[in-house]
Structure formats: C-alpha cells, structure tokens
Amino acid sequence: MSTEKDLISSDGEEIINPDGSVIPEIEFDDVSKTVRDNFLERDKIPSLKKILVTDDGKDPTNKVLSYAVALSNYTSAELVILHIAEHVDKLENVSVEGTNNANESLSDNQNFKRTIKGEIIDAMESKIKQCAEAGCKNRISYKFLAGHAVHEIVNEINDTNNNYDLVILSSSHIDSWFRSLFSDARKIISNISKPVMIIQ
Q1: pTM beyond 0.70, yes or no
Q2: pLDDT of 147 higher than 90
Q3: Where are the domains of the chain?
C-alpha cells in the first residue's frame, strides 16, 4: 500500500518506497481475471443443513445454543448437540433399558425400543425444550459420547455419515471437558475440513 511518503517515478508507472524499493506496476487485466475467477456465484454459496453444537452442560447463559438457534432459524438447519463425557463414571445415574415385542425377532433393530434415563439425559432434553420455546423452528437432536473430547469431536465431525456443514464450539469452558480450549480448538480445527464458529 502506498503512503504519502511514497514517490511516483518520472514515467508515472512505478511507485518507489522511501527505502528505495520499487512496487511493480499492477497489470489490471490480471487483477480483473482474478476478481472474475473468485467472484461469488449463487451455486457456490454453501447451504447449512446440519450444524453440530458442542455442549458441556456448564454454560448457565446457553450463549452457544442461542447462536446455534439463530443460525438454525436463518438457514433451516438441523441442530445436533454433542456432549462428551471424558470419564464414563461422570454419567451418573444413567440407565439404559431395551425391550422388544414378543412377536418380533430379536435381530430386528427397528422394533427394538431403547429407553435411556438419568439426570444428564433429563438436562439435555430440558435444553432442547428451551431451544424450542426460544423459537427454534427446526429439528434438534443430541448425542452423548464417552472418551477424550478432542478425539471424539474430530471423529464425530469426520464421520461422513453425519454430513455436518458447520461446527459451533465455545471458548468459555476452560475448566470443563473443553479445558484449554484454544489449544484443543486448534487440534480440532487442524484435523477437520468443516467450517468452525467459536463463540466467546
């Protein structure tokens, strides 16, 4: 970028910096071609159909979910809220029950009913209800995974069956499963190819 201290050469086509270096003449045909090649086109605008939201259950303001709901309403995207339990023993009072109709084959998973109960499940379902009451117009679902947070998040995003278009992370969970977030966020971002939004 030229400044008032820059000098124009006698032929008027070169800009000379105060240190004596020369800024080469700009070829406007090349610039026009670059602009043309990178011009926004309707069919190149990405659509958001499915958004992954990480949640540790410790954000009293639900700021991340608020942004997720706003984006969902603008784009009609489905929201998937992901909770990682780094230690299975943190899933306190969780029970899983499965039943199948007597007339059905035990190998028929479509007719197998699973019931999961527990405080952590109730809290997540309460959040989903709050999202709906706050005006979320689209589908909301949740997932619980156990393991190392960064590893599980990366695997979840990179699983091609999930088809996430955007990932929303929070920078406020320093003392939780998302501790040292900026370090963890860097590890996540460097191992995925999806766009990421970080809410502070």
Answers
A1: no
A2: no
A3: 7-42, 46-199
